C-alpha cells in the first residue's frame, strides 16, 4: 500500500475536516496517480468530498467502526483484518491510503511507500500525518525541483520504508 498526502512544514494535513490548501498541480498529481486504482480512507475523509460521494474511476474503500455505515458506491470494512482481506485481491502498488489522520496513523505501518507533497509553510491544523523525517524506518529517496503556486513553495517527495 502507498500513502499519498499533502502536508505542511509541521506535517499538518487538515483543519475542520478540510484540506489546509488546494494546490492545482498537487490535486492533478493525486487524480492522475489514483485514477483506476484503489483508495482507502476513513469515513470523515469520504464525507469531506463534494456531495459526500466516492471518488470517480476508483475502487473506494472506507474503514469505519460504524457497522451501519453503507454509502453508495463504496466498499466498507470495519477492521484491519477485513481491509487486508479485501485489498489482497489487488496489486499492493495499486492501493493508495488517502486519509484522514487516524487512518494514516493506523495504517502507515502497512505502507512501503509514501508520496508526500511537502508544503513549505505552516498552517493552522488539527490533523497531522506521521512525521516521516523523524521516523528512522522511513527514508526520502526522491524530491522534485522546487514548485510554486503563487507565494507557496512545495516539493513532491517520495519516501520508502527501509527493510
Describe the structure.
With 163 residues, the protein is α/β, with parallel strands linked by helices. It has one domain: Dihydrofolate Reductase, subunit A (3-Layer(aba) Sandwich), CATH 3.40.430.10. 20% of the residues lie in helices and 36% in strands. The chain has four helices and twelve strands. The protein has helices spanning 24-34, 43-48, 80-87, 101-107; strands at 2-7, 12-15, 18-19, 38-42, 59-63, 75-77, 95-99, 113-119, 127-128, 138-143, 147-149, 152-161. Strand 2 and strand 3 (18-19) form a beta hairpin. The mean pLDDT is 97.
Write the CATH homologous superfamily. Answer: Dihydrofolate Reductase, subunit A
**Backbone structural class:** alpha/beta
- Text of the CATH class: Alpha Beta
Instruction: Report how far apart the termini are.
Output: 15 Å
The percentage helix is 10-25%
Please indicate the count of domains.
1
- Extract low-pLDDT stretches: none
Q: Quick one: overall form?
A: globular
What integer is the average pLDDT?
97
- Which strand-content bin applies to the residues? 35-45%
CATH topology: Dihydrofolate Reductase, subunit A
Give me the number of helical elements.
Answer: 4
| Major sheet description | 9 strands, mixed
CATH architecture: 3-Layer(aba) Sandwich
The run of helices and strands is: EEEHEHEEHEHEEEEE
Tell how many strands the DSSP assignment holds: 12
Radius of gyration: 15 Å
